Amino acid sequence: xxxxxxxxxxxxxxxxxxxxxxxxxxxxxxxxxxxxxxxxxxxxxxxxxxxxxxxxxxxxxxxxxxxxxxxxxxxxxxxxxxxxxxxxxxxxxxxxxxxxxxxxxxxxxxxxxxxxxxxxxxxxxxxxxxxxxxxxxxxxxxxxxxxxxxxxxxxxxxxxxxxxxxxxxx
Length: 170
Prior knowledge:
single chain; alpha+beta; six-stranded antiparallel sheet; 5 helices
């Protein structure tokens, strides 16, 4: 499954009424984006332009200091940012993360929650846009702040034809 085939908002609306919906949504994202699945995320809330995701502290995401590893936190922040962006993406457009600038405020222990609120963007022309993610521990204390940069814009028809030709050969 390609992440572009994943309509996250549609899947979220179908899943959120089920028991353990947050885990199911996280598994779906992990299936579409295998590296993101390594942190076993939970998607807690999705709205247009907003995402709240969590990471449960476990041995597999810890560092030598018995806190959540910096790369696991960065992965969680990127998931929150990408989820928020996916909820705003109009048909015929695309985006890619071009920059992540993370400031680690304190050691992260326990469940970590990442929130991203992305504003509406003009997708008609290619452009660089920014967003912010805040990561907090279960006590509500900020453990990291992230600035995210995306390149957004309409799908280039030449790129689409090239991608179609490549997938047809495989």
